[in-house]
């Protein structure tokens, strides 16, 4: 009996608490990220981007207070992400779902977003097709084909490379990178000499690098996840004498992130990467962003996760302004479609048809600036759309 | 062609030696003492962070940080051994599993709190970087260094455990605690020292691995699987077995990836299962 | 075992077995309590559903680990096979009927369990742990490389589970999910209870305690081990299929080493070899994780780690073992 009374009291309290929260003028944003486990760093960097935006622009927009509720998926767990989204909707009554460092997180949440009609902002998850899973999804990061298809084309047309070998991590994003680079590269008239895939958890690249060396290509294209692998593969290539200018090295931007550059040292010089965000890009908005980020994060530099979170928050704020604080999913997604703005990464917009990000793709080369190796933008390709969507429709 | 064979064997052996330095400490704690220490990787992480912090914050030369990484991990483990582990020697393998897994969780949280979630790169001295060309083949310098260190560790351990009085004491204590105690050996102290030795080796391995596999708070979990594979393939309690097992796994993995890259991610597990089904006690294990 | 008990066994073994297996009041109360979330914590039903699924998975591991002494670090293999079977059935072949999906998931896992059981019984101790681990990781890598079938790391999309019995739709709150998962958990528990309380279950305990002696008393212990391993695989597969159906997603994570390791941790936490330990362990681990992660998503595992260490130091027989000692019902 006592237990039942206690339970009823608890239920009453929780009901009172939720109605109280609803009456307030708040917009709740549920942030679903892999806060623990091997991808914790991605979550931390993405959240730092989100909080920097809030810190800069205040936590009030269109008369409403923004409240973040953070949830940990622990890694690429679609089922956990889905449950957390359900709980955010039914228990915390959030208005907006956001975050998603990893593709499976977004996949898990898609059905909930549709059923609950909540604006869902993909702040990183970069697999092209996931945006189709729910009409309430919008992406503020990048898609893998977007940057790599452009690089493939550029490598032939501008850099004059005729043949290349591709070496990618053996998982979804790696496969996408391999096929989109190869597509751009061969469409422009280049030839792929060979393609190998390395295990995702791969501590040693020597065997694969030797295979690349055997076929003696003009250029190597690489895709590995961030973390420790960029430096490892960079060094393995250099140990075999596969380094610019003799052999050109192309990759997606993670390969030359600041920690990897430091670890690779001289061997990174001349590596060419493609990305949507360049830390060192000379631009007043970017400088303000980077300085603010350094100040708020003990000197740590922002990366692709940070900028995805920052722009994702921008989209949420601007959409709320447009709807005058109406936080319903239908109003917000309409407001988000076609939105365009100047981000620290450069000009970007949301494709009104696909709800996917359209932005400038930067081709960068590692060069020495003031005695320090860094990524220098050598070419800009404006208003790039995800090429897979164009092809599908 | 012959060049390719040589370089693949060399790289495979070097990779094997990386596995060896990471796991040799566990051969001591799990193999000799029968303590299922799943926190082995966490002690490796301690060593890694000692090296990284000394190099980055205080500019200590890399070589000098290696013994300090050993000492750091050994010290931490002695404290933990005195407080916790010694109560667990006789409490069953499942409790050892649960406790040491808990410890890995705590270690990961601690590393996140003190050092952040990011990668911790180190910059090696120039004489350890790059590669040298011999007979038209380029050998990675750090890989040669790893091989040299592993051979040294094997020699020292083999000598200590098989040829010295202390080694005999360890073996006696492990084989039969009661008899050893009755013979006047201070079993408690011997266990503490052996445990410190195993953890110190883990710390050294962690420090040596940073250059190749990087370092972040998930290090303790990340290499647990590899380390267990080496110890079981080598055979419990056999330093030589671990060495042989690591070399075999390394060469098998690299050569396999080179010849049949499609099987890349399967190889090490296929080798594991195949070897254990043929020889359940491992290559040189007695139990 | 006292003298009286021994004589009771000798006089009438069947009655002794039956007397050991009567339902106690604690058990009945326990199962009534599992209905509480439906009425009192509706906002936690989705969590409760995942707890029930994990508890079923932990039960399957208890059968092999707690009763037959097979320490496994690769049981996610069977969980994942069941999960992918149900997922592929719906996503690739458009068949989303839940009950048949569940059974098929269990059958595929059982088949894999039967085949691998021949390898399992060949090895013991560390080699046994490592062979289960190796087989688990091989299955994970296989699923990763069969991207056309499994969706690879991105996960399988387009799964849609039909209404249960054509009537109960899976709702956003999770009423259906929890009721469904709980019902399957209860059935799974009944099967496990039946298995461990049969003479077969006693033979298994004999194997766990002393494998050398079993052949001497005329027991084909390898066949016993293969049988329990297959049953356990089937239950794990059903748990996996259940996860797929209640979430409409499958990712490679269902096959991961982490899932194998977590479930063993939960089982030891709750207490091995007592079935309820598996359920209690899953409840405590997952609820603690959820609550701690709600407080701080970045550091919850610190507290989980401390919990695990504390349980070993203060309740060396797991939480259930500690509790039963507290209320002096040591068995």
From TrEMBL, chain A:
Q: Which ranges carry the Leucine-binding protein domain?
A: 26-367
Instruction: Respond yes or no to whether keyword Methyltransferase is given for this record.
Output: no
**May I ask which residue range the UniProt record assigns to the signal sequence?**
1-23
Q: Which InterPro entries match?
A: BCAA_transport, Leu-bd, Leu_Ile_Val-bd, Peripla_BP_I
* Pfam families (UniProt xref): Peripla_BP_6
Q: Which CDD domains match?
A: PBP1_RPA0985_benzoate-like
The cross-references to SUPFAM superfamilies, in alphabetical order and at most eight, read:
Periplasmic binding protein-like I
| Name the record gives this protein | ABC transporter substrate-binding protein
Q: Organism's domain of life?
A: Bacteria
Query: Which family does the entry's similarity section mention?
Result: Belongs to the leucine-binding protein family.
User: Which biological process annotations from GO are given for this protein?
Assistant: amino acid transport
Q: Which UniProt keywords apply?
A: Amino-acid transport, Signal, Transport
TrEMBL record, chain B:
Q: Does the keyword Nuclease apply?
A: no
How does it sit in the bilayer? Multi-pass membrane protein
In terms of superkingdom, the source organism counts as Bacteria
Q: Which InterPro entries match?
A: ABC_transp_permease, BCAA_transport_permease
Q: Name one Pfam family in it.
A: BPD_transp_2
User: Where do transmembrane segments lie in this chain?
Assistant: 6-28, 35-55, 61-85, 97-115, 135-161, 190-215, 221-251, 258-278
Q: Which GO terms describe its cellular component?
A: plasma membrane
Transport as a keyword?
yes
Where does it localize?
A: Cell membrane
- Keywords annotated in UniProt: Amino-acid transport, Cell membrane, Membrane, Transmembrane, Transmembrane helix, Transport
Spell out the coiled coil positions from the record: none
Q: Name one GO biological process term.
A: amino acid transport
* Molecular-function GO term, any one: transmembrane transporter activity
Chief location of this protein within or outside the cell = membrane
Its family remark reads: Belongs to the binding-protein-dependent transport system permease family. LivHM subfamily.
User: What name appears for this protein in its UniProt entry?
Assistant: Branched-chain amino acid ABC transporter permease
UniProtKB/TrEMBL annotation, chain C:
Q: Which residues cross the membrane?
A: 25-45, 51-70, 101-121, 126-143, 178-204, 225-243, 263-288, 300-320
Q: CDD domains from the xrefs?
A: TM_PBP1_LivM_like
Bilayer topology: Multi-pass membrane protein
The alphabetized UniProt keywords are: Cell membrane, Membrane, Transmembrane, Transmembrane helix
A GO molecular function term, named singly, is: branched-chain amino acid transmembrane transporter activity
What the entry lists under InterPro entries is as follows:
ABC_transp_permease, LivM-like
Which GO cellular component terms are attached?
plasma membrane
Subcellular location field: Cell membrane
Q: Does the keyword Transmembrane helix apply?
A: yes
Name where it mostly resides.
Answer: membrane
Identification of the protein by name: Branched-chain amino acid ABC transporter permease
Q: What is the source species? A: Nitratireductor aestuarii
Lineage of the source organism? Answer: Bacteria, Pseudomonadati, Pseudomonadota, Alphaproteobacteria, Hyphomicrobiales
